[in-house]
């Protein structure tokens, strides 16, 4: 039996999808193709994520003031709950990626079992060299993970445990040989600004002026550097984080008004406009959609 990798074309990432927990399996494999230049929202996942660049132009990833240019054949690993974003420059071609999502508790328990819970790649973004990825057939491993999802439940858990253990051993081998990359570029200024935003985005008084004061820099310089290292404006970055918090609050049963104010939005009408622009629906429609999904899954 051949299990094909689930495929999405020109998929628009939403905070709902980014925060969705892995429901059916502890490992999920998905194929994404982009034909147009675009960027993802700033988001974090409640799971670990590995991205294999299958073909096309480089993908620029930003995380905590660092930039990573993922080239064809390379793999990038994102720790659980780390904020990041991607910019896809497809040129005249397209960008294709295999994305592997791994349940955080499953990841941590397997790492602990192998004595690898303190390995650096558990906590920082790591890029693996294309030649090493090919030599160890990491793509083949990801495809086997996808195939194993079709196994009966009594076999699936053991198969996934073997897959993840193999993945960890390969990572250790690649890291031992030094076939990992540091960020393409890094900015201590943007890192300070990003971390400050992440700690204070639910404060409705957080704005560019306050960030300027915190980083001791001018609006123009801070804005230019921030856009260069995150592919987003400061305002958009703050809005993305607030929206992620708001969507989670709505999913947890908070009223829309409470979710709005608790997420740092001070103007309800502006919030509604931003929500509709991002998701193509009102918050009420979004809440209804979540309830319908929960009923279907119950």
Write the layout of secondary structure elements.
Elements: E1 6-9, H1 15-19, E2 27-34, E3 38-39, E4 47-55, E5 59-63, E6 66-70, E7 75-78, E8 85-88, E9 95-103, H2 104-113, E10 126-128, H3 130-135, H4 138-148, H5 153-176, E11 180-181, E12 185-186, H6 188-200, H7 208-215, H8 219-230, H9 234-251, H10 256-262, H11 268-279, H12 283-297
Parallel strand pairs: 1-2
Antiparallel strand pairs: 2-9, 3-8, 4-7, 4-9, 5-6, 5-8, 6-12, 7-10, 10-11
Helix pairs in contact: 2-5, 4-5, 9-10
Say what oligomer this is: single chain
How much helix, percentage-wise, in residues?
A: 40-55%
Mean pLDDT score: 90
Radius of gyration: 20 Å
Query: Strand sequence of the main sheet, in spatial order?
Result: 1-2-9-4-7-10-11
Mass-distribution shape = globular
Beta-strand percent range: 15-25%
Structural category is alpha+beta
Distance between the termini: 29 Å
Written as H for each helix and E for each strand, in order along the chain, the element string is EHEEEEEEEEHEHHHEEHHHHHHH
Q: What is the tally of helical segments?
A: 12
Provide the low-confidence segments as ranges.
none
Total number of β-strand segments?
A: 12
Tell me the major beta sheet.
7 strands, mixed
